[in-house]
Amino acid sequence: MKRFVIYPGSFDPLTNGHVNIINRATKCFDEVVIAVAVNSNKNSILDIDERIRTIKEVFKKNKKIKVDRFEGLLVHYAKKKRIKTILRGMRTVQDFEYELQMARSNNILDPEIETIFMVSDANYSHISSSLIKDIIKLGGVAKAFIPKIVENELKKKLKKKV
Ligand code: PNS
Predict the structure, then answer these.
(1) Confidence band, pLDDT 50/70/90 cuts, at residue 137
(2) Could you identify the atom of ligand 1 that is nearest to the CA of residue 37?
(3) Catalytic position from the list 51, 88, 129, 143
């Protein structure tokens, strides 16, 4: 039986930390579905189509990785896809409270859904999308934290140093 997992997130933008988790997940699962949340957050740096396009481009050589979007509740999306496992990355103890709340809520909403966690590699545990967003918005250079394809997309969009 094939093992599927959903790796959900905002991915605004995709970071090297996400890439590391996704690549490691392909060693544990036959297919990893990166589910990009469609949120109308005005604070977004990349819109949903830009995020999907860049993520697809980053992983285009890996047939085990699929990229999709979802709107509404994650458990509804998981049911629609018939996937019962959700993967989340855990960087530091600060992530724990939020992840615990989400995992428990999702399991109450749909008891068939299990969330599993992969601890981030120490090289990436300091990276977060919101930190990168801040760096870029405040005119800093974030290229050490993001894949080259994402850097190019951000440059195109913001027409400034990324
Ligand atoms: O990358 P993020 O922002 O930490 O991802 C959070 C995300 C998108 C996975 C989470 O907010 C989510 O699942 N949103 C969909 C709405 C939902 O199901 N909310 C209830 C979760 S308890």
Answers:
(1) confident
(2) 8
(3) 129
How many angstroms does the Cα of residue 4 sit away from the middle of ligand 1?
19
Range of the domain at 28: 4-126
- Residue 148 is assigned to a structural domain of this protein: no
Residue 143 lies in a domain: no
Q: Distance from the CA of 74 to the center of ligand 1, in angstroms?
A: 7
- Judged against a pLDDT cut of 70, whether residue 136 lies above it is answered with yes
* pLDDT, tens digit (0-9, with 9 covering 90-100), for 11-58: 999 999 999 999 999 999 999 999 999 986 768 899 999 999 999 999
| Any domain includes 86 | yes
pTM as predicted: 0.95
Which among 161, 148, 162 has a CA at the least distance from the CA of 14?
A: 148
Establish if 46 belongs to a structural domain. Answer: yes
CATH number, domain with residue 75 = 3.40.50.620
pLDDT score for 42? 64
d(CA 145, CA 151): 9
Distance CA 26, CA 154 (A): 27
Q: Give me the half-sphere count of Cα atoms (radius 13 Å) on the Cβ side of residue 144.
A: 8
